[in-house]
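Reviewer 2 asked us to include a model.

Predict the structure of this chain.
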Amino acid sequence: MSEIVATSNSQTCEEAVEVALGKILKEHGLTLSAAESCTGGQISHMITIVPGSSAYYLGSVTSYAVAVKEKVLGVAPDIIADNGVVSSQVAAAMAEGVRRLTGSDYSVATTGFSGPGGGDERYPEGTVWIGASSESGTETMEFHSNLDRKGNIERFAEAALVFLLKKINQELSV
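Predicted model (structure tokens):
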């Protein structure tokens, strides 16, 4: 995984995002869950390779199929019909659904086109929508990568964890 500069509790150090995320969650007694589509478990993998992640990571749903998004995560069929499966609205609903399902304090979700193929004019391959949710609300972000499928999945997962870490840092500094 590539290195980023992560901030935790006003202390800056260069470390992998999954390590920085784990530190801040443990420090504050917070929990995390994930709902993954196009990342296919990569977020969960990144989180669980950190020793001690069982203290804060509750689990995930890999909702590759639309039916799983709807039946397990509770994404309303009309949200998908009106916006498409790769959209801000679906990423938000997935994040909220997995947080509700697991009872976690925070959640992160991804839905996108890793490639090759699958994209369209609006959202070409290499596009992901990321959702991050907490009790204080849900935010989404669109992210693009132009690597091969494996590279896109890795970048999408890292971008999702960076986005989530920023949300957590903002909420804890209030």
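The beta strands are 4-8, 11-15, 32-36, 57-62, 106-113, 127-134, 137-144. Residues 1-12 have pLDDT under 50 and may be disordered. We have added this to the supplementary material.
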